Amino acid sequence: MVNNQVPSSIKDEALVSKRRNQMIKGAVALFKEKGFHKTTTREIAKASGFSIGTLYEYIRKKEDVLFLVCDSIYQRVKERMEASIDTNETSLQNLVQAIRSYFQLMDGMQDEVLVMYQEVKSLSKDAQDYVLQKERDMVAMLEQVIVNSLSEKIPEADVALIANNIFVQGQMWGFRRWILKRSFTLDTYIERQTHLLLEGLSSQLKETQS
Amino acid sequence: MVNNQVPSSIKDEALVSKRRNQMIKGAVALFKEKGFHKTTTREIAKASGFSIGTLYEYIRKKEDVLFLVCDSIYQRVKERMEASIDTNETSLQNLVQAIRSYFQLMDGMQDEVLVMYQEVKSLSKDAQDYVLQKERDMVAMLEQVIVNSLSEKIPEADVALIANNIFVQGQMWGFRRWILKRSFTLDTYIERQTHLLLEGLSSQLKETQS
Amino acid sequence: MVNNQVPSSIKDEALVSKRRNQMIKGAVALFKEKGFHKTTTREIAKASGFSIGTLYEYIRKKEDVLFLVCDSIYQRVKERMEASIDTNETSLQNLVQAIRSYFQLMDGMQDEVLVMYQEVKSLSKDAQDYVLQKERDMVAMLEQVIVNSLSEKIPEADVALIANNIFVQGQMWGFRRWILKRSFTLDTYIERQTHLLLEGLSSQLKETQS
Amino acid sequence: MVNNQVPSSIKDEALVSKRRNQMIKGAVALFKEKGFHKTTTREIAKASGFSIGTLYEYIRKKEDVLFLVCDSIYQRVKERMEASIDTNETSLQNLVQAIRSYFQLMDGMQDEVLVMYQEVKSLSKDAQDYVLQKERDMVAMLEQVIVNSLSEKIPEADVALIANNIFVQGQMWGFRRWILKRSFTLDTYIERQTHLLLEGLSSQLKETQS
DNA sequence: GATGAATGAGCATTCATTCAT
DNA sequence: TATGAATGAATGCTCATTCAT
């Protein structure tokens, strides 16, 4: 699926898609290593496996690469969340499972998420808005799962807050690993965060037959 | 107090201190507005009130400015935390109060924290280590306050986790304001986060006579 | 008629001719608008109605397009001068008529002449010589008409000078329109320039029975 | 006198003036040789005797060099015309003298005028307007001299036309030398053009006691 | 100590031209 | 014949850093 926010002068859409994937893959690795600003377009071209001229057949400006990278990361995270999280199921188990899936996802896409985290602000306002909408969607998914897992209604704001906390704690496993890895593995991290959350919600939670 | 990590060719320490403060003040404003990479040394010099030549009498490289800025921010946050948080007091009230102080601090230094958040990765490994140590110190303060507020011992890892959660939630008020401000004011945000935390800890908390 | 100064890899001469005409038509419009140097080969191909690859089947280098354009303009001007000017007729009326025709021609081909005027110097020396020969031919035509209109012989140099003056005044109507249009329409311009010229020549002119 | 249409980041106005003169001198030579578009900024810097970085301390964009060059040429032509032409004197001799001075000037600044002629269209609309105003001023000077040399009034349009003819004939000596030099030297060219003009005006001219 | 002119390596971007299909 | 994807040399411009005054 070609991202039409970024025009290309190449007509063959399948090719555009293929080349942009090469580009994204190469760019993520570089951005991870040295950040967007310290990465040159030539390096991106080289890491993508084609020439600088070819790079510019598929984008207009360097910032387009960043946009493509951020968008692709958000898209992949969103898709994988949609695949692994059931927003209809109403059991508590479903919330626990959703958190686990999401944290595992964050663990696996750690580098990508870190890149995204540090560089979104380098995008133009428009591009940021476009990309952040996906973040809102993801938080909304978590909110739905939370609501479904509760037996009593709690204030909307609290649901939003919990969803945001979970969301950020997932990312935190990526961008604060330097401090967390002293005390946790991914599994213990998931387990303890879940534990803490459920304790806080205990009185409103649905009964679960495990 | 002159930061000796960054050598200056000027002998007069008082002057170095004064000039660097001008520099930091000007630079924070610029980094906030356009980020470290898009800010030029000329702009920094101008915003600091002196010439480009003079700027380089007080630093060696552009990165030194970033280091000075980050260090100064951490330093100020740390100092203000130390001033408002009592790590000896053992009441639950003290934890509540510490959280409130810290969140208010984050609210007031929102821009600075945002800058720091996005730009630390641009520092050299050494500079990052130096600066992150201050972060570790702050988390440690929170850990101490948490431990003091509990009647029973809980695993060290849990203490670390809670401290990290609080720490990040404070920053989150700054860097995710775009999504949080739909549901919260600073006060309601503090109140609900505190509420959630205490619910989760309720069984281990010290009794409080309010 | 295919211009053999510019080789093509296509064999079918009729096709070459057709494609080059498309090319010239498209290119003139572009050169007029933005000049030769700011026009890209891709734009020329697009304006010509075929692909960049096809463009290069009919020329060797970008400069060939400019040559083709200049040559075509000169050719058209020359042909139309030959069609409307009678170099055998010896009346004064014929000179007056020749000037009128030529000025009207310049008015109609204003854009083309302007393009040619500004861009010939971008041609290689050889191409310039080739193209300027046509200009010499046109001036020679004017010289002939002038000589025919005189009753007495005047120095060759004077004839050349007058022919050049007429020639340039015709072009001047194109490239200095910004200043002339405040005082003249095409008709008054023709009338006054003719008047001035005839005054200067009055004593040598042939009698005319109008 | 520093041209304020083009901002410089250097404060010392005398220096700006000096460097820009170096720049103009170097650039004219290059533009003359290969045209504005085929001249690189590096070449301009080199020909000016300083580095590319320094060049850009005195201008903002490459086009600024062209503007500076065109403006300087017009300015010099205008100044020298003002110095050698008397717009108050009312004798016929004065017109003859003015033409001679102007043609000699064009002869001496041939290269500059050629450059200007071919490249003004590369300037932005604004810059063109600014520069062409100087041309209007010069034509106006010629008009004044013409009017002063006449005993009877002739239509304003005719005065404008004659002034323009003289103006263009002066330039023509530069840009059509390839065809004129077969029949003329500068002196004979001046003499014959003047002769032609005076013949045309004879009945309206002031008596001159030579 | 302060200034700001000079430097040139470095970077993003363009575009004429080629060539496999 | 026609196409258009690929190439990379070339170019305009920026900016951190130095150093003479």
Automatic annotation (TrEMBL), chains A, B, C, D:
Domain HTH tetR-type residues, every copy: 17-77
Alphabetized SUPFAM superfamilies for the sequence: Homeodomain-like (SSF46689), Tetracyclin repressor-like, C-terminal domain (SSF48498)
DNA-binding segment(s): 40-59
Pfam family, one: TetR_C_24
Keywords noted in UniProt: DNA-binding, Repressor
Matching PROSITE patterns: HTH_TETR_2
Protein name as annotated: TetR/AcrR family transcriptional regulator
Organism: Halobacillus salinarum
